[in-house]
Amino acid sequence: MNEISNNKYAVILAGGVGSRFWPLSRELEPKQFLKLKGNKSLLQQTVKRITPFIAPKNIYIVANCRHNFEIKRQVENFFIPEANIILEPEGKNTAPAIGLAARFIIKQDPDAIMFVFPSDHFISNNTSFLGVLKQAEILAGKDYLVTLGIPPTMPHTGYGYIKIQTIDHRPQTIDLKSKNRQAKYKAYRVEKFVEKPDRVKAEKYFKDKKYFWNSGMFIWKAKVILDEITAYLPELAAKLKKIDTADINEKTWKRIPAISLDYGILEKSKRTAVVAAKDIGWSDLGSWPALAELLAKDKNGNTIQADSIDIGSKNTAVFGEPRLIATIGLKDLIISDTPDALLVCDKSRAEEVKEIVRILKQNRRKEHSIHTKVKRPWGTYTVLNSGIGFKVKLVEVLPHKRLSLQRHIQRSEHWVVVEGEAKITNKKNTLYLNTNESTYIPKKGIHCLENPIDIPLKIIEVQCGKYLEEDDIQRLEDEYGRSAGK
């Protein structure tokens, strides 16, 4: 009899805002959607690495409702059912997200085993990773709450740690033999979970060899984790029972307490175990220096991901596009250049990027939230220039996509087609425009833009008016179910 159950379900947590990777990441385009290493985003890599082990129909994604269309766009080729995308009205940390997913999964399969993954980590050795998951599944089948622990390679202060139980200084292993064969990966009972340490404690943990980094990846039965939530977080359990569908009521969700699963359950439960996930090539990509460590370096230790000319720099990472970045004699710096923001920081202070994001929010600036190129379900727009009373955009519409039927109260618009063919509704008239043809949309004029052909449509849009923000829009018809400004 096969010891590996077929009742496997994945929950991918994709609700993070990725503030540590500003200015490349923004609230509307966080780290998990970026192609930081390779030609797929971190979310797409996460899905791809688990599909040999878990069927796409059993993969759930928990994300913020603001990322609805981008999530669907990114996973559309993986055959994940749209009903499996759970959209939170606002982030409530990991315990509510995991608990809600467990409730949906157990309705499908009372014996389900859940594998919980962050959407924004990197793993280089997928063969070893899948081997670890198989061992963890055996342990979860015995009603343990299993986490994957990473053997530390340095005294890192940016990770939480897991300490294993010992008796007479000997680690308390858990037998994971399968079919009379010795398990490749060792499992241990957990003594405690430890928050991110200072340098002195991190060095102690590293030397001790009884500590693992907490990877944030978990495996357990859906029934077991729900029982633990009921036991240790009864208020959360009661409120989750009031949510019956993935279409979450915003008022109901606001009453949900925000709490991490580590703090709310794992630090209290007596069922916890850790599997040593050695040789999987794991990184949480939690900072710019962590990314730089994964990428190729020149003879001086520099990581260059940009059109760059350097003279004499060492251990410096440069990220940017499309303009040239010239550097001279730098050392231990991070440089990240985007069209509307430039970051230059010492590698040792990269964690403070979060403080920059906080200040941007406090000052109500847009650079923490959006790029100059903004994604929409129908395509993108890029702000090319703006000033008092005007704004110029490049609008790109994907083949056979259309914008909403809408009107603006405080601005007029001039459209010039620069590539492709446009089908335009302007008041009650429908017209087709080709390259170098234009039309004018007056204030309060009902209008719609559509791309009727198989190649992208590009138009230059010139807005004129006293108020030019995205919320000056009244949608009369919208196939994407959006409100103003979305």
Describe the structure.
It contains 11 helices and 31 strands. The protein has 3 domains: 8-283, Spore Coat Polysaccharide Biosynthesis Protein SpsA, Chain A (Alpha-Beta Complex); 288-358, no CATH class; 373-477, Jelly Rolls. The strands form 8 sheets. Strands 21-22-23-30-25-28 form a 6-stranded antiparallel beta sheet, with no helix packed on it. 36% of the residues are buried. The model is unreliable at 1-5 (pLDDT under 50). Helix 2 links the parallel strand 2 (59-64) and strand 3. Helix 3 (94-108) packs across helix 6 and helix 6 packs across helix 7. The N and C termini lie far apart (52 Å). It is 21% helix and 33% strand. The chain has 486 residues and is an alpha+beta fold. It is globular and about 80 Å long.
Any low-confidence stretches, pLDDT <50, length ≥5? 1-5
The helix count comes to 11
Helix content: 10-25%
How many discrete structural domains? Answer: 3
**Order of strands across the biggest sheet?**
21-22-23-30-25-28
CATH architecture of the largest domain: Alpha-Beta Complex
CATH superfamily of the largest domain: Spore Coat Polysaccharide Biosynthesis Protein SpsA, Chain A
Shape, per Cα inertia axes: globular
